[in-house]
Amino acid sequence: xALLIINIISWLAVAGLFGLSWLxxxxxxxxxxxxxxxxxxxxxxxSVILTNVIGYTFIGGQKIMIGNVFIFxxxxxxxxxxxxxxxxxxxxxxxxxxxxxxxxxxxxxKCMFGFLGACVFxxxxxxxxxxxxxxxxxxxxxxxxxxxxxxxxxVYGPDSNYWTSLGIKFTLLITKPPLWAIECSLYPFIAYTSxxxxxxxxxxNLNDQNVPWFARKGDHQSLYKPLSSMTDELKNVNQKRxxxxxxRFVKKL
Length: 253
What we know:
Blueprint: H1 2-24, H2 34-54, E1 56-57, E2 63-64, H3 67-78, H4 80-94, H5 105-119, H6 129-153, H7 162-171, H8 177-202, H9 227-252
Antiparallel strand pairs: 1-2
Helix pairs in contact: 1-4, 1-5, 2-3, 2-4, 3-4, 3-5, 3-8, 4-5, 5-6, 6-8
């Protein structure tokens, strides 16, 4: 019964994410090119392979599964609707290797990462996009590990009572900080390097009529700045801010 309720809530949540994603794109019907479909299919396949087929065990049998990174990248590159759609496709393809009862909550987690990826370039400007990406991804990891994972996995607990199993799952969260630390340090790095590769694959088509999500602001060249130049840019912003604060202080004298 608990699993059925979770599935219904999760399907509604996925539908809500689709609606929010469509709203974020201004209810536009964008044509998807062949190259876009190819890259999205590749990202979905990588997500399934690295999550459902390979997976990596860690402390106490916990799994580090890199697959959600590529759903996040799909949202970064193509926008919220394709990001959420990649999450749905990845989850459905993962049913081939499914063990146990189907839990739509894991589809919602994948869709959430696809939407969060799009949030990196949802701001007015693309400056400091790497910092935004790290913050948003860490937020997604935190919600996944410390909130959604216990809520969804409680239905598979040894106790027949869902709330008892949920209490046990939340108690076991004290073992999760090492996993959280590794994912927060590893996953954003993989997302950053993978994004640069896709940028290279798509940079010759950025002037087409249907530009990808990350290039719609028109300043996509700044996305490929090396880390050192982004650090210098941040220093310059801080210096200008300090100068403004000093000038205000002088005027008050």
